[in-house]
Amino acid sequence: MRMTHFKNADVDVSQLAAGTWGLDSLRWNGAMSETEAIEAIRTMVQGGVNLIDTAPNYGNHSSEQIVGRAIQGLDRSKIFISTKFGTHNDLFTGGVFRDARFGTVMEELASSLRNLQTDYVDFYFLHWPDAHTPIAETMCALNFLKQQGRIRFIGLSNCDQALLEEAMKYGQVDVIQPPFSMIDQRVKALMSWCRKQGIDTMTYGSLSGGVLTGRFREVPDWPDNDVRLSFYKEFRPDVFPRVMELMKTLDEIAAAHNVLVSQVAINWTTQKTDVSTALVGVRSIRHVAENIETFAWELSDIEMQKIDAKLEALQLDQL
């Protein structure tokens, strides 16, 4: 497993991280059983992954609870737990609402610690910006929790540079968590700026909802409530054909190395200078093993350039 040294946090983190949004059976079709999920997470840890990312609104707390059970009996000091706050499921409307006030942050962390069966969280993220709460108030809460030792590092997810700069007036920001993949590069400039500030980047969506695994050669026939259809533009009828053109290049490179297309995509992401670690969803024990095997090889500079040129020609990196 390749590792990255996080500058502001001053810790070494695996370049592959366990993402657990896919354990949300409310939004993802075909989510794993709890038993399978626990085994998959432990398999990742055994394979050298030392970061597990979750959130309370993934499955209405169920994802955090599964992670909590998965880490029991493991050496907690060698595992980084990342979770979030500020985004809440609205069980009446089926939507979400945001609340990052001081008191809410306190309540949410207490709940997350119970779910995770631990007495501290390593990386604690504002999940989405709360337009109604000043970031000064949110940072005050995070600094207080950090002083207490209940969280170790402060993160902002899905944020822009203006919010980061404002947050940094009130305390150290250690990491951001933006979307980033071959097909979603809208935050490249922000990631580069963050690296210069010592702020590391955990990217999510590395496999674009699974389309960059090579598994889908047609738009999937998922139920309308599967979040991937709305969250990932890759499945839109106007974008999907271009993704299939990209797959021809990825197929060619995968065949040359005798590896899976998903490994090409993960290597492309983790070999980008501004990516510190890539969150990849826990979807099956077999996929976990395949993803870990990614780090037995690397893309050459020529192959990286070939993929980038294809993305530019298809204008996928500009969507």
TrEMBL record:
Gene3D superfamilies: NADP-dependent oxidoreductase domain
InterPro entries: AKR_Detox_Biosynth, NAD(P)_OxRdtase_dom_sf, NADP_OxRdtase_dom
Highest taxon listed in the record's lineage: Bacteria
GO cellular component, one term: cytosol
Domain NADP-dependent oxidoreductase: 16-311
Keyword Mitochondrion: no
CDD domains, alphabetized: AKR_AKR11B1-like (cd19084)
Any one Gene Ontology molecular-function term assigned to this protein's record: oxidoreductase activity
Transmembrane region(s): none
Keywords annotated in UniProt: Oxidoreductase
Name this polypeptide is given: Aldo/keto reductase
Organism: Holdemania massiliensis
